[in-house]
UniProtKB/TrEMBL annotation:
This is Glyoxylate reductase/hydroxypyruvate reductase b. InterPro entries: D-isomer_2-hydroxyacid_DH, D-isomer_2_OHA_DH_cat_dom, D-isomer_DH_CS, D-isomer_DH_NAD-bd, NAD(P)-bd_dom_sf. It comes from Rangifer tarandus platyrhynchus. Keywords: Oxidoreductase. Pfam families: 2-Hacid_dh, 2-Hacid_dh_C. PROSITE patterns: D_2_HYDROXYACID_DH_3 (PS00671). Residues 117-295 form the D-isomer specific 2-hydroxyacid dehydrogenase NAD-binding domain. Residues 9-326 form the D-isomer specific 2-hydroxyacid dehydrogenase catalytic domain. The keyword Oxidoreductase applies. Belongs to the D-isomer specific 2-hydroxyacid dehydrogenase family. It comes from the Eukaryota.
Amino acid sequence: MRPLRVMKVFVTRRIPPEGSAALARAADCEVEQWDSDEPIPREDLEQGMAGAHGLLCLLSDRIDKKLLDAAGANLKVISTMSVGVDHLALDEIKKRGIRVGYTPGVLTDATAELAVSLLLTTCRRLPEAIEEVKNGGWTSWKPLWMCGHGLSQSTVGIVGLGRIGQAIARRLKPFGVQRFLYTGRQPRPQEAAEFQAEFVSTPELAAESDFIVVACSLTLATRGLCNRDFFQWMKKTAVFINISRGEVVDQDDLYQALASGQIAAAGLDVTTPEPLPTNHPLLTLKNCVILPHIGSATYRTRNIMSVLAADNLLAGLRGEPMPNELKL
């Protein structure tokens, strides 16, 4: 009987229990883990990856050429517990023949729920209203006090009608949205049919939407897409929501648009950088709601993500098909 080949696996953070259990059951792997909920320091990451056959990382871990060099020739698989892969040096990874696993699909519902929650929180000014209750600002009923914007009879524009964009539209439709617009690399008539969504140009979407939800991937084409021009196209009563990646938005331009009244309000679950410094100008604005990137933060979703990341890693190490492999 041939002896079992044991492969080194490095995990960059504590992960949910079901994912940890899946790795622990793998007799052909020796698992090392950064035992903290906080990010691993760069030097420790380089040391931990040295000689590793497999890496399980998070979206906050920047996997670049220097780190791949530190890992060495053994590294065969990178599994990220995320749907986004913009933290991975994909060209360098492809050059080295390293397989990549990721976790699409499983976080769609949780992220869409969060997007709708953030939209409603922002457009109905809930943080302001809660603060008024606490600070004594609530005195009597006033006809226009704390008024916001409603979804009924509105036009919603979605930047990126992928899985998450569709799930957001599906949840918004029962609120009485009159019209859906979307933009992206190309029309998606089959997916758009469910919402009678119209494919339009970016300027047209910005100009005609009462609510804009950004749900696209971060690419060269979308980096900085929502800039000064974009916000100037928007209605003064429009509400802007971003649940994609912070770098899709020029935050300086967004600040100016909000502070000057160019647009009504914004809700962000993603920023640049993350975490956002506590002295950032956006945090001084009442009409800007910022969350700490919690789109997929439900217990069920995070556990499923961790199991899928573990299964991707183990399958890749064993030369088997991954449940979700990124085609490079």
